[in-house]
Amino acid sequence: GREWHLVSRPQGWPVPGDFALREAAVTAPGEGEILVRNLHLSVDPYMRGRMNDVKSYVPPFQLDEPMTGGAVGIVVASQAEGFAPGDHVLHDLGWREYATLRAKHATKVSGELAPLTAYLGVLGMPGLTAYSGLLEVASMKEGDAVFVSGAAGAVGSEVGQIARLKGASRVIGSAGSDEKVRLLTEEYGFDAAFNYKSGDVTDQLKAAAPSGIDVYFDNVGGDHLEAAINVLNVHGRVTICGLIAQYNDTEPPAAPRNLAMVIGKRLRLQGMLVLDHQDLMPKFFEEVSGWIRSGELKYRETVVEGIENAADAFLGLLKGENTGKMIVSLAD
Ligand code: NDP
């Protein structure tokens, strides 16, 4: 099978030459292990951080080793009780065609309950991030006006719709193209949306939120965070989920420049890691899958075909080529 290695650490924006697709031996499963043929791979923004050689909440990728990441696959051989060939599993050995792993590190998933790709997106890690980040971290309550950046992405599109379904007074989103902005208001039920590339973010947010905002779900950082601090109402709450605008920066960010407002407005800014919210998984899964079944929550995926295109899919994600979750599907 083939697998993707990181071969050099990107300085600034990653380039295709930082990655190499290499042939690797397929290992038969030992006691307690399963052999999985991957069907769908996840590429995620956090992987950019793992390409730097810095200590973080997840260790860096090692050079000339296979990268890891979320994947859904089919068991082809098993030496583990409870797992049989044909079972579908979610696990963390993505970026490769075949994975041999301890069965206790795999979660069985059902293609009948949901499409298999949903376990990497709307019903998986990004979905739980949206749900816990909005409801637990930002303590969103009925009547709040909610602003989310990166709103046409996997996490952001779910944040906005959950806010609507939980009784937000107004839901506002920002995204990087007019087409994405239309999707937010016409399909996802946002009250207002704007393209952050077509004007000043504070000006556009003020126009979209005449009565201010009570919650900001930050996927972007920089000028978006500055704009939100400008427009937040007293006692507003901010979930710092991601800062994608600066993941490829080689200099510290220029914004936000208005942190002093946090004092007068008594704002709460809180960082989050989805890992801390696994206990919410069953409740999240039940509630969100119900909304998907009833048609109240919609989602898109951008599917790139072929393991050979996985690095390009990751690079495309950083540039906004995806709408909803970016997935790499392998030939079945
Ligand atoms: P997305 O599906 O949102 O894809 C990334 C999107 O970021 C792109 O589509 C692009 O959309 C947008 N983007 C890229 N560069 C910029 C920029 N300079 N300014 C504004 N937007 C930009 O990814 P996810 O939903 O998987 O992740 C969203 C955020 O959540 C990321 O910051 C990620 O790191 C974070 N995250 C954090 C977790 C946690 O536990 N803290 C867990 C999971 C995700 P556009 O066309 O609109 O620019």
UniProtKB/TrEMBL annotation:
Keyword Oxidoreductase belongs to the record: yes
GO MF term list: oxidoreductase activity, acting on the CH-CH group of donors, NAD or NADP as acceptor
Start and end residues of each Enoyl reductase (ER) domain: 17-328
Keywords, comma-separated and alphabetical: Oxidoreductase
Domain of life: Bacteria
SUPFAM superfamilies: GroES-like, NAD(P)-binding Rossmann-fold domains
Keyword Oxidoreductase: yes
Coiled coil start-end: none
The protein's name in its UniProt record: NADP-dependent oxidoreductase
Organism in which the protein naturally occurs: Streptomyces nanshensis
